[in-house]
Amino acid sequence: MDGRAPRIALVAGEASGDLLGAGLVAELKQRFPGATFAGIGGPRMRAEGFDAWHDSGELAVMGLAEVLRHLPRLLRLRRNLCRRLLDWKPDVFIGIDAPDFNLGLERRLKQAGLRTVHYVSPSVWAWREGRAAKIGRSADLVLCLFPMEPPIYQRHGVDARFVGHPLADAFPAEPDRAAARARLGLPADAPVLAVLPGSRLGEIRRLWPVFIEATKLLTLQVPGLVAAVPAADPACRAAIEKGLDGSQLANVAIFDGQAHDVMVAADVVMLASGTAALEAMLAKRPMVVGYRISALTYRLVMSLGMMRTSRYSLPNVLANEPIVPELMQRDCTPENLAGAVMTWFRDPEARAALLPRYEHIHAKLRGDASKAAAEAVAGLLAR
After folding, report:
1. In whole angstroms, what is the distance from residue 83 CA to residue 129 CA?
2. Who wins on pLDDT, 132 or 340?
3. 3-state secondary structure of 254
4. If you write DSSP's letter for every residue of 350-368 in order, what string do you get?
5. Which of the two residues, 16 and 55, has the higher pLDDT score?
6. Which of 21, 287, 343, 378 could staple 269 via S-S, CB 3.0–4.6 A?
7. Helix 63-88 to helix 295-303 angle, to the nearest 10 degrees?
8. Stretch 93-121: mean pLDDT, rounded?
9. What is the pTM of this model?
10. Is the pLDDT of residue 128 over 70?
């Protein structure tokens, strides 16, 4: 870098990538005063001084059917971004999650002689392991959030580091339910169900009607039940409110963001599979995981044998056994969801047995992830 402050390019997809990117930018600024950061990011990254050429929400598509609909726009965005990055000549490019977008971009930049990092390993433990070698052709360095991932890459000669999970650093070991309820204005003594139907509009369209019906069933069985629903952004809130129109579901509190507080405040969490399941585990709350992908995507995944695991939610993957219920595709019905949630409400011994499992996983994931990731990037820049 001939003594000058580095140029660091990042592309973060979705709110979770924006959170990771903000922590990484903050740590890199400590190591490289005067460094410039640019690419694709969200409000948290911009707050750290990141120059967002595009917003991370532009990459927030999921499932094969949705990706196909948005493919021309995404390919055009990636081509234009690649040209701009090659003109800018960053000292390192860091793709944060969004593997369908970032890995192809990383491969082109690496072929052009730029150093590349992929932050957040795709789920090589769930999908075909051979993907690890392919990822290594795109990234000089892979930063992993989970301890079971680096050994898979090492079998394929790829430099991969376990840096810990930033969410494990963000959650205290013993979350305070009473304080969270006070911050949210929720009643101190009422039973509270946190309901998280997803952070993408496609997820909400598929899951929210099912979750609403499950919640209605639960209100008949749990007197005074309050449903607390965090909305990831204004568009998600609008979709959630629209779904409630005419539902006759009472005692629903919708919050702008604040998902962590909502989960901590809850007695039980009903949620879409994904990062939210990890957050509920770190909040130390019993949960039920439900999920549906488009029928086309599901048929392709199953017919091609692309899945290597029978476990979908991160608590079960990290525990290497089913410690929380997973209701996927046809099993994700209002009746099944409500029944599984009621088991947690009715069985205090099961809730107590779950807590030490959560605590053990939390301890393994904790370790100042943003700092460790920044140190790994600094090591790559020093080569």
Report:
1. 31
2. 340
3. strand
4. HHHHHHHHHHHHHHHH-S-
5. 55
6. 287
7. 90
8. 95
9. 0.81
10. no
Compute the distance between CA of residue 315 and CA of residue 47 in angstroms, rounded to an integer. 31
Other CB atoms within 10 Å distance of the CB of residue 154:
12
Order across the sheet with 268-272: list the strands: 252-256, 226-231, 192-196, 268-272, 287-291, 326-328
d(CA 135, CA 140): 9
Instruction: Locate 154 and state its tokens.
Output: 């090492």
54 alpha carbon, distance to own chain's centre: 20
314-341 burial by CB neighbour count: b if 16+ within 10 A, else e? bbbbbbeeebbbbbeeeebebebbbbbb
The DSSP element (H or E) to which 195 belongs, if any, is strand 192-196
**DSSP assignment of 34-89, as one string?**
T-EEEEEE-HHHHHTT-EEEEEGGGG---HHHHHHHHHHHHHHHHHHHHHHHHHH-
Contact 104, 78 (CB under 8 A): yes
Instruction: Give how far Cα 237 sits from Cα of 214, 298, 330, Å.
Output: 19, 27, 26
Residue 165 · residue 145 · CB < 8 Å: yes
| Residue 302: pLDDT over 60 | no
Select the more confidently predicted residue: 72 or 86: 86
State pLDDT tens for residues 82-104: 999 999 999 999 999 888 889 99
- DSSP reduced 3-state for 261: helix
- Strand-pairing partners, residue 118, are 95, 142
% of the chain exceeding 90 in pLDDT: 74
Region for 10 from its dihedrals, namely left if φ exceeds 0, alpha if ψ lies in -120 to 50, beta otherwise? beta
Contact 109, 82 (CB under 8 A): yes
HSE toward the beta carbon, residue 178, CA cutoff 13 A:
1
Q: Yes or no: say if 362 and 168 are a contact pair by the CB < 8 Å rule.
A: yes
